[in-house]
Amino acid sequence: MQPGDAERDGSLDEAAAVFTALRPRLFGIAYRMLGSAAEAEDVVQDVWLKWQSTDRDAVENPTAFLTTATTRLAINVTQSARVRREGYVGPWLPEPVDTRSDPALGAERGEAVEIAVLLLLERLTPTERAAYVLREAFDYPYREIAGVLDLSEANSRQLVSRARKHIAAGRREQVGTAEHRRLLEAFVAAARAGDMAGLEKLLATDVVNYGDGGGAVRNAAKVPVFGSAKVARFITAFAPRFWLDTDVVWVEANGQTAALVIHAGTPMALLSITASERGIDQLMWVLNPAKLTGFSSVAAGPAEPSA
To answer: 20 to 30 A from 81, CA-CA: which of 96, 208, 278, 290?
Structure first.
């Protein structure tokens, strides 16, 4: 070992300890902004490489430095991801994540992790999305948000305010956890039975059905299906083939109960819903195999079976 090697190794160990402690938060920021666990992991890895090569002695606040680096890199990736998603085959849905071990995904609050909220965040500008995530999920003061985004504090307040209005406008007041699960279980039972009348009773009249197959699943609808009657017919039409030789287990995806459909030990689909007093407002089927890898261990092992 050469002189100085031990000091450098110690410094890197310290850098790794700091980064590891903050990693859940960094991933949580990137994931909420991008709606993709894979892209969020790439962002976090790039930030780690940047942290290794940084003159860390000159960094007064490692948390602020790493948060800023993650947010700004995620903004850049968001801009390029938007271009890629314009060519996405069929509806795009966020990649679901298993939140059993970390319901808030590193956040101080669990907001802005539900799939429906992440889908709404896609409509915001990258800076609005970043401001909303930092404020609503991580409770960052406006002054710190302004520093991260290189804006004035007044501008950061405006960004959060606009984002809140966009999210509120696209979202009805949701039912409680128990009712949410009851509606999901009832929907799955009716769908498996091909019960069109039962399905219509559960659906809001203006329900929207999204199916994200990414071009890899033949039966995935290329466009959203609107309206309770049309959605019920669509679900019923595919029931004999879709549910054949499948099992359903209840999982926690993005902080909410979801139905994982399994075929031959492999995740085939993950269904999440939003529901209000009017019934089920949105059905979000993630069918793209590349987006279900996070639930492979659940599919392969024992899990809570469906009723």
So the answer is: 208
